[in-house]
Amino acid sequence: MGEWILAGQAAWIAVDWGTSNLRAWGIDVKGEIAFARSSDQGMGKLTRDAYPGVLTGLLSDAIDSAAPMDVLICGMAGARQGWLEAPYLDAPADLRSLAARGVSPVVPGSGLAATILPGVCVRTAGAEDVMRGEETQLLGLHALQPGFAGLVVMPGTHSKWATLEGERITRFSTAMTGELFEVLRTHSVLRHSLQGELDGPDRAEGFGAGAAQGIDAPQRLTATLFKVRAGSLLAGRSAPWCAGFLSGLLIGAEIGGQRDWLSGTEIPLVGSTGLCTLYAQAFAMLGASTRIVDATDATLAGLKAARAA
Amino acid sequence: MGEWILAGQAAWIAVDWGTSNLRAWGIDVKGEIAFARSSDQGMGKLTRDAYPGVLTGLLSDAIDSAAPMDVLICGMAGARQGWLEAPYLDAPADLRSLAARGVSPVVPGSGLAATILPGVCVRTAGAEDVMRGEETQLLGLHALQPGFAGLVVMPGTHSKWATLEGERITRFSTAMTGELFEVLRTHSVLRHSLQGELDGPDRAEGFGAGAAQGIDAPQRLTATLFKVRAGSLLAGRSAPWCAGFLSGLLIGAEIGGQRDWLSGTEIPLVGSTGLCTLYAQAFAMLGASTRIVDATDATLAGLKAARAA
């Protein structure tokens, strides 16, 4: 395996503890990855008491848990319903203060010294918003591209749009685009048009049609969504076409409805490659250029930068 | 009971057979209701073979099923996945032709002569839409208010906006507003903010705030939806407030995004009183006046008008 030897080199542990998953990386003194571990024990599955055991269990074959070791954690582990609440920083927020504003849950019977980084929030009445995990990716983006200032888009279940100025988040907003796709696909009348295999040659065409309509008329989303169903009833659209159209409508509406955020700079898209590619295509319809940044790269760069700060 | 005697007076049967429910009314020679029956045996629960038995079973204690009797049916019984498909009329559609374009399923071993009215569709590419049942209510609205021409809004799981000119539907569109509320309330992350009793004194305030935001920025719906969650996390909003806010956001976005349909005429709202009252409140924020028309009154008036035509 060789991992035991590599594991011996870890100087500290970087952890991304989200709603669905937990990932941990041993980082050596040079900042390289010494080992990586992951599990499906995300916040959504855990009671408060379970966190220490899950963490030590995940790391047990990689490190000597009794030896002193720092663990820096970002994500939903710091939510109110997580391990230990790490109160939000208020936006505009200086991301250099992330580690200093972290909280330290106890990991009994281990040498692990854990710190959970805070999320960032907007408290302005009517514009309230929250993020947990993306702030670390934004700090990572700054580390990867120090001079960057402008809009960053982070596609996902809950997409984040943030304006970054160096190490500061000046504002951000969340769009429920990915989750809307999932609940509509699974639970609404549109599911009848989205049965069976959803990947197919028609999907790209459906996406293009949906994205065009979403960008063009984001204000009509509650109505255009029904076109998924009507299109399959009347025009015989295939399930892949309908899936692409629904995805395009939602992503297009997210982008079209927030086009006032665009500033002409190249937009970093932080997320999975597949989803970011769809966003890139939709942004291109508005003439906006984008660049895909791997989400894991950004998370790791952010945890390293937080530790260094 | 007295119903047997009343039932003897029915000259024909009016039926509204929807996705969730089945309702039947015996109509006497003067056009008055002789009896009413209902059941939960909507299209969603039935196989094609089950329809005749459900219909005769529902009417068995009210009429002599062996005697000749016309039954006029509107709604989802005429869908492809219903009893017998009644092909759509194309919009613009003349509603006087509804009965002539109906289909006649056989009701074996009974004297019932059933006719299912067609729905109406829009086939224009990219604007495809369908209705089944609402066309009958629109014909009923014409019967109740013969001179009416203008926008009619029919709030519901799938809200319909239609432009009526006498007995013609010139155009219409469906908004998935009611279903969006249900799937988001039940299946999305917003459910955490919508636990427990949702009726409470805060609900009206939440509705007003949501409707204002939805009307003002319908194009930002994918983002403002998340404010439901953020508002409860950061501002301690109650579950009734959040429920009102979500409902207001969605209804407001439906209305705000289609404000180009408004023509200055008083808008008939055809639906349940509770839901129509919310729509009336939101339309009033745009300065539009409305009038609530009971959905059952419209359905019955429409079935009578279709029979008379």
User: What is the 3D shape of chain A?
Assistant: globular
Share of β-strand residues of chain A: 15-25%
Gyration radius from CA atoms of chain A, angstroms? 21 Å
The CATH class of the largest domain in chain A turns out to be Alpha Beta
Number of helices of chain A: 10
| Poorly predicted runs of 5 or more residues of chain A | 1-8
Overall pLDDT score of chain A: 94
CATH superfamily of the largest domain in chain A: 2-keto-3-deoxy-galactonokinase, C-terminal domain
Largest sheet descriptor of chain A: 5 strands, mixed
What is the N-to-C order of secondary-structure elements of chain A (H for helix, E for strand)?
A: HEEEHEEEEEEHEEEHHHHHEHEH
Major protein interface: A-B, 50 and 50 residues
Tell me which CATH architecture of the largest domain in chain A applies here.
Answer: 2-Layer Sandwich
Assembly context of the chains: homodimer
Number of strand segments of chain A: 14
Count of domain modules of chain A: 2
